[in-house]
Write a structure and sequence with these properties.
The chain has about 325 residues and is an all-beta fold. It has a domain of about 230 residues: YVTN repeat-like/Quinoprotein amine dehydrogenase (Methylamine Dehydrogenase, Chain H, 7 Propeller), CATH 2.130.10.10. Helices cover about 5% and strands about 50% of the residues. It has one helix and 28 strands. The strands form seven sheets. The chain has a four-stranded antiparallel β-sheet with strand order 3-2-1-28, with no helix packed on it. It has a four-stranded antiparallel β-sheet with strand order 4-5-6-7, with no helix packed on it. A hairpin with a 4-residue loop joins β5 and β6. The chain starts with a helix and ends in a 10-residue tail after the last strand.
Amino acid sequence: MLAAGAAHAAAPVAYVTSEKAGIGVIDLDNLTLEKTFSIGASGPRGLSLNEDGTRLVVADKNTGELAAVDTRTGKVVEHVKVGKNPEYVRVHNGYAYVTYEPGETGKPEGKPGGKPGADDDDATKPPAEIAIVDMKSWRVIHRVVSGHETEGVEFSRDGKQMLVTNEGDDTVSVYEARSGKPITVVKLAAGGRPRGIKASPDGKEYAVTLESLSKLVVLDAKDFHVVKTVDTKLGPYGVVYGPSGNRLFVAAGRDKTLQVFDAHTYDHLADAPIGQRCWHFSFTPDDSKLMFACGRSDAVYVLDAKTYAPIKQIGDLPLAWGIVTYPPSDGSIESR
């Protein structure tokens, strides 16, 4: 295992889920699509890596499974039945946390320009759940009832709490990370549809994006009251604190814009154009670049992390969904 981890460290890579092509592997030294491998039935979305980078766990919406992929061979070595419409995946302390929706067979995207919530009947659906998978036995050890349409998963900096965003009922649910025991539910602005969530580097705050209201909400990490509300461009989703802790990055997906804010005052600093439906993004391991999975552009967009100037587009990734790197980087899915 240690040898495999060292090999990965010598050749940094990014893994990108493509809902139509499988999993793309990007060589980060050359910024090229090195290879693409399938996990069987198409439809991979959420993804996360184990600590040494030897296993990539992926949510497959078409099979309702969590697939564990050997990153050296690209072969699926474990299948775990999760439930309908699995979407977001986070690995934390040897466990995979997977969101899914028992009342759904698959969730269509909202219509561009449509009214927020116009076609929703979230109140009549069963709530979403989070499956906690032991990555040693590859069994679901807990199923945690959440809110409606659970979207993002984050952990407190001390690792003791799990927070999830529920876009269908405008809440953030807080749990004990290991047991899944509920702690509290934080109600946010009606119709906001919270999606991305990220803990600040000092662990004192959480940044939450409200997609339908085009807002960024900052929560106090002790009692979860709203510290600040910040306007964004249209449709914010992915959110990342920069490695230095001084900048906060938001992907405004509907406006095809990366927005940069001061991570302490939340003043707006800069904007940069990105592709279409760029929900998730990540720094590279050396912190020099930002990489965006842009689903409706069928590509990964690469920007300079300091100047935000475009560097490259890496194509052949139809309906790109999420992106993570090895060695680990700060991103909208994973954090260092």
